[in-house]
Specification:
alpha/beta; Beta-Lactamase; five-stranded mixed beta sheet; five-stranded parallel beta sheet; 18 strands; 58% helix; phosphoprotein; transmembrane helix; membrane
Length: 819
């Protein structure tokens, strides 16, 4: 049995712990993301406050103050202990009623309010009127006393324990709640209250009544710290450790403590006069040396007892980090098995527009979004709660998502999401599981990024091989037709028209091939899309023009497209990039024309803030579990040889247009892409989407001008020569930068077209030497590279640049500008 002073110190320490906890509890409430109903938490705060007063009143009876003051003070303290314990029970009942309430505002039922009011009034009366609950206190020494109860004491204690029983019933009700987190929390709530109930019944009813021994009355106040902390923990935190996990750690440390305490007990009990100093010193040294080693063994034993396995689920999750070195997909499958989630519904995906709504909340907390936690928060929030959280909840409901874990890349920006559906057994995700996954994802983030780069390189190689065959084959086809027309015996005028048409189609094929090269290079370098070439267009005229340019396999295929472009509006875009988006959507949709007898409809919808183009096909549709991934880099589905660059690039292009693209689909019915553009005011009729004619070289003074063409590839020099060859131009050629410097020194040059990358001397170094001699001589770079570093180096030395393959229009515009 503890002596007097240790009991007092224990009770004072208990009250201090609860007081500090309440302060932390109140502080934490202000950091909540949603404003909870104050009645729930305020009832707990009052409960904890009266628990502290009850503990302090019990400390009085264990302290020397009991003998210092007379019996009247002891009677007052006994009555004070009665009322504080009763009020603690009453407020515990109140917050349990609000937790279990089915009302949206968590108000009390009439019978609950009436019962609390009546019993509180009765408790106050029987404790204020003398000799009803406590008649006297016989004091022998601190902690040695006897309380003589009055006639109404049984009624008072029955009142108090009525609340304990009703509170327990409310906690049991939470097990049947629609809020899954309530079921988990009810376990902790019931454990806390049962520890308190059992200790109180034993020490303050059974022992005093049967043996008239009040020496154990300090025990329930001391153990009340368990109840106060467990209840506060479940109220404050929405991400709990699983009961099995806590049991595992408790058992592990208990086994380990037994290993070290047992020898001390044996030595102490077997020796008639043990030297405790040496025993304690030796035990401390042994504990320090072997504690970690024995704890590992104890954890294995505890894991076998609790989990029927030598490794806990958390330890297995930590080991998943090694799997990411070899394959992210295999690691995710193993993780799904450990978490007991469907393997096909645990996804590691890149950041995309379908999950934009979650990003502000994930950035704010730098933690996970858990559907069960969100349901709990919103359920107990005020009716005027955060509407943004309601939208997140609805989105997670629609996508059947239970967990979203962000992976943060460079500059602490989200680069990937780990997304999971509910577990097979519908259990909640525990705190230890989420913490372990977050640790793993942080550690393997580099592996994920590296794997993505490897996949990117492979996809780019496949994309170049696959995509470039189409325009080159088309070019070959049109040139073969030109040969065929020449061989045919037709009228001269008709033959010229046919040849002209085939040449136009061949040029268009080359243009599309060049466009694909630019896109592939842009993707490889992860460069941003510049708005320098954006112009205002009529969306209706531009869309019609692009549809007309699209090469359909047959006229019948073209007839399957329905256009409704009457609701016209202005867009600020690049026509080539917009054409790529439409071509990509058309190519994806027409892929299924033969198999599904599907059709395409394109319509325009004007809005107040945004205007939309809706592209819909009645093809096979997309599975709901596939839909979130379609805008990911390199994602392909049901198509052989695809690069997976198409839709991800479409998304980036639409974002560059300050718009967006989203997809809706129902399997077996339709797929619909909605392109949103910002609203722009202006006169649509004044816009012209047709390309202007190439400018003519202005011959102002009829004098000859000399142009130097520098490129290590002869075909490139000849192509430029063909494009700008005019009577008033003298055209010179050089194969490298060294030759260019020599020719510029020995000839009067008016304009230089300079390839940036050449052997012997590159274009940038040659331009620097020429500019020293002739600082005002215009030099235009020809580059197939579009990286920021290359362009920056070019613009510091030269007067402009053109990207290969160079068009005739671009060359003539440059010649016209400088000459």
């Amino acid at each position: 049995m503890l002596t007097t002073l240790p009991k007092v110190y224990l009770l004072l320490t208990t009250s201090a712990i609860i007081l500090l906890w309440v302060g932390y509890f109140i502080r934490s409430l202000y950091r909540e993301r949603t404003k909870v109903n104050p009645y729930i938490y305020s009832s707990y705060i009052f409960y904890a406050f009266f628990i502290i007063l009850w503990i302090l009143s019990n400390a009085y009876f264990q302290s020397p103050l009991l003998t210092y003051f007379d019996e009247s003070v002891a009677i007052f303290m006994a009555l004070f202990a009665n009322m504080t314990s009763y009020l603690a029970f009453a407020f515990a009942f109140l917050f349990s009623c609000r937790l279990a309430s089915k009302h949206s505002d968590k108000r009390l039922s009439k019978w609950q309010f009436g019962l609390t009011s009546i019993t509180t009034l009765v408790a106050l009366i029987v404790n204020v009127i003398p000799n009803l609950t406590v008649i006297g206190v016989t004091i022998q020494a601190p902690s040695v006393f006897t309380i003589e109860f009055g006639p109404f004491a049984p009624l008072f204690f029955l009142n108090a324990f009525l609340f304990v029983i009703l509170t327990s019933i409310n906690f049991f009700k939470l097990r049947k709640s629609n809020i899954k987190l309530n079921k988990e929390k009810s376990v902790y709530l019931m454990i806390g209250i049962f520890i308190y109930m059992i200790s109180t019944i034993a020490s303050q009813i059974i022992i005093p009544v049967i043996w008239a021994d009040f020496s154990y009355t300090w025990l329930p106040p001391t153990l009340s710290v368990t109840e106060a902390l467990l209840i506060g923990y479940t109220l404050l935190y929405h991400r709990l450790y699983s009961f099995k996990y806590l049991l595992f750690w408790s058992l592990s440390y208990s086994i380990n403590l037994i290993l070290y305490i047992t020898p001390i007990v044996i030595i102490y009990s077997s020796s008639s006069n043990p030297n405790l100093f040496y025993v304690y010193a030796l035990s401390i040294i042994i504990t320090g040396l072997f504690w970690d080693k024995t704890l590992k063994k104890s954890k294995k034993i505890a894991s076998i007892i609790i989990y029927k396995d030598q490794q806990t689920p958390v330890e297995k999750i930590y080991k998943i980090a090694e799997e990411f070195k070899y394959s992210s997909s295999n690691a995710i499958i193993k993780l799904a098995s450990i978490l007991n989630t469907p393997k096909e519904e645990l996804l590691l995906i890149g950041k995309n527009t379908n999950y934009n709504i979650f990003i502000p909340h994930l950035n704010e907390s730098h933690s996970a979004l858990v559907k069960d936690e969100l349901d709990y928060q919103i359920h107990y929030a005020l009716e005027t709660g955060n509407s943004a959280l309601h939208q997140v909840q609805e989105k997670m409901d629609q996508s059947k998502t239970a967990l979203i874990l962000p992976i943060f890349g460079e500059n602490k920006l989200i680069s990937h999401f780990l997304i999971s559906a509910n577990k097979h057994d519908n259990a909640t995700f525990s705190n230890e599981e989420i913490s372990a996954i977050q640790w793993v994802l942080t550690k393997v983030q580099g592996y994920i990024e590296s794997e993505q780069k490897v996949r990117q390189s492979q996809a780019l190689a496949n994309s170049i091989a696959h995509e470039m065959r189409n325009p080159l084959s088309q070019l070959q086809y049109h040139f073969e037709k030109i040969k065929h027309h020449y061989q045919k015996n037709t009228e001269h005028e008709k033959q010229e028209d046919l040849i002209k048409n085939e040449l136009n189609q061949g040029c268009l094929a080359i243009q599309k091939g060049a466009q694909l090269i630019d896109i592939i290079l842009s993707e490889a370098k992860n460069t941003t899309i510049s708005d320098a070439l954006f112009q205002h267009y009529s969306i209706s005229l531009l869309t019609q023009q692009i549809i007309d340019e699209y090469v359909f396999d047959s006229e019948e295929m073209k007839q399957k497209i329905t256009l409704n472009l009457e609701d016209d509006f202005i867009v600020n875009i690049n026509d080539t990039l917009y054409g790529f988006i439409l071509f990509n959507l058309l190519r994806n949709a027409t892929h299924y024309f033969d198999e599904y007898k599907s059709s395409i409809s394109i319509r325009l919808v004007r809005g107040f803030a945004t205007n939309k183009l809706i592209f819909r096909d009645t093809g096979p549709g997309i599975d709901s579990h596939i839909l979130p991934n379609i805008f990911d880099d390199f994602f392909t589905h049901n198509k052989k040889g695809g690069s997976g660059l198409g839709l991800s690039y479409c998304l980036r292009v639409m974002h560059a247009f300050e718009g967006n693209i989203v997809c809706y689909s129902t399997k077996g019915e339709f797929t619909e892409f909605v392109l949103s553009f910002p609203r722009i005011e202006g006169n649509i009729n004044a816009l012209n989407t047709k390309p202007s004619s190439p400018p003519l070289i202005k011959d102002k003074d009829n004098s000859l001008k000399t142009v130097l063409i520098v490129d290590d590839k002869k075909v490139q020099r000849m192509l430029i020569h063909t494009f700008i060859n005019k009577d008033n131009l003298t055209l010179l050629q050089a194969e490298n930068g060294e030759e260019a410097v020599e020719m510029a020194t020995n000839n009067k040059i008016d304009l230089i077209f300079m390839d940036s990358r050449m052997p012997i001397m590159n274009g940038i170094d040659a331009a620097k030497k020429i500019k020293i001699l002739y600082p005002h001589l215009p030099i235009i770079a020809l580059t197939g590279e579009s990286s920021h570093e290359e362009i920056s180096a070019i613009t510091q030395v030269m007067d402009g640049y053109l990207t290969k393959p160079v068009s005739k229009t671009q060359l003539l515009q440059v010649v016209d500008k400088w000459l």
